[in-house]
Design brief:
Blueprint lengths: L13 E4 L1 H10 L3 H9 L8 H13 L3 E6 L5 E6 L5 E5 L5
Parallel strand pairs: 1-4
Antiparallel strand pairs: 2-3, 3-4
């Protein structure tokens, strides 16, 4: 049975990534697209309930959105979409 792809909840805008995030993805052998797809469909990853609630409010009112994921190599990466949806940045927490 074929899995039905979820529809994005918001536009990602221009996609940018820091050198650290790109190195972490390469180390894990993972592609940024898999994390972008999760982020855009509201699968926020490793966020606490308070941050998930902030994202829900952000979807409704047009605030910044953030996701946190752990790569297969155990590195944490963040995805942050600007409030105006002009850009999404992929970065390591220490690069924020």
């Amino acid at each position: 049975m074929q899995e039905i792809a979820k529809k994005p909840l918001f536009p990602l805008g221009k996609i940018v990534a820091t050198p650290g995030a790109l190195a972490a993805l390469e180390k894990a052998g993972q592609r940024v697209e898999e994390f972008l797809a999760l982020h855009a469909t509201g699968e926020w990853g490793d966020l606490c309930e308070q941050d998930r609630a902030a994202n829900q409010l952000g979807l409704e009112l047009g605030f910044r959105l953030m996701s946190s994921y752990t790569t297969d190599a155990s590195d944490k990466i963040w995805l942050v979409t600007e409030a105006d949806r002009s850009a999404t940045t992929v970065l390591l927490p220490e690069e924020y």
